[in-house]
Write a structure and sequence with these properties.
Largest sheet of chain A: 5 strands, mixed
Order of helices and strands of chain B: HHHHEHHHHHHHHHHHHHHHEHEHEEHHEE
Structural class of chain A: alpha+beta
Strand order of the largest sheet of chain A: 4-10-9-6-7
Shape of chain B: globular
Largest sheet of chain B: 5 strands, mixed
Distance between the termini of chain A: 102 Å
Structural class of chain B: mainly alpha
Largest interface: A-B, 80 and 92 residues
Order of helices and strands of chain A: EHHHHHEHEEEEEEEEH
Strand order of the largest sheet of chain B: 4-3-5-7-6
Shape of chain A: elongated
Number of helices of chain A: 7
Number of helices of chain B: 23
Radius of gyration of chain B: 26 Å
Strand content of chain A: 25-35%
Oligomer: heterodimer
Helix content of chain B: 55-70%
Helix content of chain A: 40-55%
């Protein structure tokens, strides 16, 4: 039977933290500051030498009290100090003050009554325990794999749009003339997580009436250009499909529509 | 020998459950989407994944019950509980890992905007009447170096952990027996709080906080109580009104219930007199006064106070002010052609945990009272007082099924009831089990394992909106967010109206701090998006065709709108065919497409 304090669990958690990314460490840091440290220090100050009376529940009590302390500090800060400086400064000041008080108390109480080191319960590990610990390590590693897969991923999509005459989403052409080219501003914003090649084609029915040759857009960048459309036949309510395609993207990837009345050349001259 | 076998079985269940996480993580890793809208999150994973998921949950529950009832060795049950907590936390983390922009199409976005207000401008918005959760989320964002958006997304996970911790503390204060504590904690950590648990909702956070309040309150009632405990209670009480008003009502009912239990106990023991009455009253008067005064002082300064009171009055004594849950539920049922199987399925998944906990409550109360009566035992468990609060909230939930009481979601009230059911029933079941013969014990064990697994299963499949509950996922994707940003950036200066299948004013709050967005709504009223006419005007009299949009300029259609109208309560206004027809509707130019949001502009004639 192996008896120990909390070393193994701590070692394991630190190992995992270092294995994982900085984001995870930051998050853990934020959580500990927000949901443990203030309450823990507050309880130490409150209960001084009577801390033993709450020792068995010090973890959950600290978590709950942290939420209370942070909430009250936040409220007091916002309604009394306001925007003069960040609420984090108030929080750090309170944590610092509580820390100093705990330190002073400990100096006064002397070495024998220190209890901060004994909040971890003693755990004995038998044969089943060792198997459990190994299983836990395997589970943590597989979670690390899942975490690594997800953290390196971002939403993958493309924004595709057309703009009207003033460079705004208004004033789109509703009446054009047969065989007279018109220019339409098209825009693409790439959020695919990589440099992406796109192409744009304008169709009336199945007939292409204009196209933009393949062009490259870096990740998280916007490209705007003009597509020239020439309407071959006159007629009312013609539907113009403006389709976006791209390398490795299903076609059509995005689909926009304009509705126009196409006047005959003779109608225009009239 | 039997004991060794049961210990071996319990350890084996734990190990199998634990190791099942490995394939679960691998399958989840392989099933990641690309961040685009997914109408049914449950369909995004293979049946093997869900099989494993439920199996792990079952292993955790079985382990806990074996440890509590058949082994009874201290805190062995903790392992099984950890299994359930890990599993639930993993599920709650899906919106974060699946790259949602927000999890929630409605209030959640408002809460983000409130949080961003603090994060950006260093102060809560003046009308933010529950600022504490927003303060927590903005501080977490600052401390962890993440955006307010990410903080709001991960916050439900950490609130769940806080809830687990508070449930543990409450269980500790309610009972001295590790086994009873185990049963309370295990039932409290189940994912039974529906979508309120998976989204950023102060209402749900208030429930988790309420457990902490209850624990501290019980501590101050104990014999070892002292001034220090009283100070803790005062701090806890002061903060509660700033979390959520309904939490205050629950706390007041909790305190009153405790008072009535003391009275009832003294009557049972034939010790009731004037002294005992005032002694009981004395114990609750201070906390009751503190919480009531702090709540009234805070909440009455907001307009919402008057609006809420008026709404309650109108709901209860005048005509209905809104659509009750039952009305919406009936319309969903109507569309299922009143298929009895479908109605039952829907009831089980929508109200499963509340029903199961309600049934357990009845069994526990009945069994407990009978046993106590047979044994002429007049000592009541401390937790007995909770029954009043539980009944009150079940009553409110039932009332809200037929009347629109503030918000017509009965789960608002169910959640408060089922938060306290485990604390009440666990000591009862434990008492019943240990005062029963073999058959009674087997019956109790079987009932519990079926009920807890049932609550776990139905709760899991109602944690996110999906087709299972005849709704659509409330995922607010990045592609949707960019669509709103596009409209904001490239909008015309005219005053033409903006339409959407589901009227939305909240979505603009996804784009900035609350004060900026509210100012924008005041200066540009058209951002208070209008409801598009039914079926986009495709049905109805021919002469009304195309004339139902008043002064239209833009029409926003999101993937959520389409998903919602395929399955959800709004289905009557639009059908999936309407969205297909819209593609051929010559009245609208379709000028923007992000995959999850399309923008159409009215064709100027």
């Amino acid at each position: 039977m192996l008896e120990r304090k909390s070393g193994f669990a701590d070692l394991l958690s630190f190992l995992i933290i270092f294995l994982l990314s900085l984001t995870f460490q930051n998050l853990l840091f934020g959580i500990v500051i927000l949901f443990f440290i203030p309450g823990y220090l507050f309880l130490q100050v409150m209960y001084k030498d009577e801390l033993k009376s709450v020792l068995s529940i010090i973890f959950p009590l600290s978590i709950g009290m942290s939420a209370v302390v942070v909430g009250i500090v936040g409220l007091l800060h916002f309604y009394f100090i306001g925007e003069r400086f960040s609420v984090l400064i108030s929080l750090w000041v309170v944590i610092g003050l509580l820390g100093v008080l705990v330190f002073i108390q400990r100096v006064h109480l002397g070495e024998t009554k220190r209890i901060g080191n004994s909040i971890f319960p003693k755990i004995s590990i038998g044969a089943w325990g060792i198997v459990k610990v190994i299983s836990l390590i395997v589970v943590f590693i597989s979670f690390g794999y899942y975490y690594w897969l997800t953290i390196s991923q971002q939403p993958e999509f493309t924004e595709f749009y057309i703009l009207g005459a003033d460079g705004l989403s208004t004033g789109y052409p509703t009446e054009v003339t047969e065989n007279s080219p018109i220019n339409i501003t098209v825009g693409v914003v790439n959020h695919e997580g990589k440099i992406q090649n796109y192409s744009i084609v304008g169709l009336v029915g199945d007939e292409p009436i204009g196209a933009l040759y393949p062009f490259e857009v870096p990740d998280n960048e916007r490209r705007e250009g003009e597509i020239t459309l020439v309407f071959p036949r006159a007629g009312d309510n013609q539907r113009v499909d403006i389709l976006l395609g791209g390398d490795g993207l299903e076609y059509p990837y995005r689909h926009l529509t304009l509705w126009v009345n196409v006047l005959g050349e003779d109608q225009e001259s009239n | 020998m039997r004991s060794k076998f049961i210990i071996g079985l319990s350890e084996t269940l734990l190990l199998i459950g634990l190791l099942s996480f490995v394939p679960l993580f691998f399958i989840a890793g392989e099933s990641l989407g690309n961040g685009m809208y997914v109408a049914n999150i449950y369909e995004g994973f293979t049946p093997i994944f869900w099989g494993l998921y439920v199996f792990i949950g079952f292993c955790g529950i079985a382990r806990v019950l074996l440890d509590i009832f058949l082994i009874g060795d201290g805190y062995r049950w903790l392992w099984g509980t950890f299994l359930l907590v890990g599993l639930t936390a993993f599920f709650l983390s899906f919106p974060f890992f699946q790259d949602y922009a927000f999890h929630g199409q409605y209030d959640n976005v408002i809460h983000y905007s409130y949080t961003l207000e603090i994060y950006e401008y260093g102060r809560p918005y003046i009308d933010d009447f529950y600022p504490v959760t927003h303060i927590w989320a903005s501080i977490l964002a600052s401390l962890a170096g993440m955006s307010a958006q990410e903080s709001v997304l991960v916050f439900p996970i950490f609130m769940y952990f806080m809830g687990v911790s508070n449930a543990f503390l409450f269980a500790w204060m309610i009972s001295d027996r590790p086994e009873v504590r185990g049963l309370i904690v295990t039932m409290s950590v189940l994912p039974v709080f529906t979508f309120y648990q998976s989204m950023f909702y102060p209402l749900q956070i208030a429930i988790f906080y309420l457990w902490f309040f209850a624990a501290i309150f019980m501590r101050t009632r104990s014999e070892t109580s002292n001034l220090k405990n009283a100070i803790l209670l005062v701090l806890v009480l002061i903060l509660l009104p700033f979390i959520h008003p309904l939490g205050v009502i629950a706390a007041l009912i909790f305190i009153l219930s405790y008072f009535f239990l003391e009275l009832f106990s003294s009557i049972l023991k034939k010790q009731f007199n004037r002294m005992s009455f005032f002694s009981s009253l004395d114990k609750i008067i201070a906390p009751f006064a503190i919480i009531f005064v702090s709540w009234f002082t805070w909440f009455s300064s907001f307009n919402v106070f008057g609006v809420t009171l008026n709404r309650i009055y109108q709901s209860l004594f005048n005509e209905l002010s809104g659509q009750s849950f039952a009305m919406r539920y009936t319309s969903v049922i109507d569309r299922s052609n009143r298929d009895i199987i479908e109605i039952l399925r829907l009831t089980v998944f929508v109200h499963g945990p509340a029903l199961i906990f309600g049934i357990l409550l009845l069994i526990a109360t009945f069994g407990y009272v009978i046993k106590k009566a047979i044994e002429r035992d007049t000592n009541l468990d401390t937790s007995s007082f909770l029954v009043l609060g539980i009944v009150f909230f079940y009553g409110m939930a039932t009332l809200s099924l037929v009347v629109d009481v503030i918000a017509s979601f009965p789960h608002r009230y169910y959640n408060y009831a089922i938060a306290f059911v485990p604390v009440f029933i666990a000591p009862c079941f434990f008492y019943i089990y240990h005062h029963s013969k073999r058959i009674g014990r087997v019956f109790t064990f079987v009932i519990l394992i079926i009920a807890i697994t049932g609550a776990f299963g139905t709760g899991t499949f109602n944690l996110f909106f999906s087709e299972i509950v005849r709704s659509s996922n409330h995922q607010f994707s990045s592609a949707q967010l960019h669509g709103y940003q596009f409209l904001m950036d490239f909008t015309s200066g005219s005053s033409g109206y903006i339409y959407s299948p589901i009227r939305q004013t909240r979505e603009v709050f996804a784009l900035g701090p609350f004060s900026d967005q509210i100012k924008m709504l005041q200066t540009t009223p058209r951002w208070r998006v209008n409801n598009a006419p039914e079926h986009f005007g495709f049905l109805g009299e021919p002469d009304s065709f195309g004339r139902r949009f008043y002064n239209p300029e833009y029409l926003i259609v999101t993937a959520y709108d389409i998903g919602m109208h395929s399955v959800g309560p709004q289905q009557a206004r639009f059908s999936p065919d309407d969205f297909t027809l819209l593609e051929f509707d010559g009245r609208w130019h379709k000028v923007y497409d992000s995959g999850d949001l399309t923008l159409r502009v009215w064709r100027e004639e």
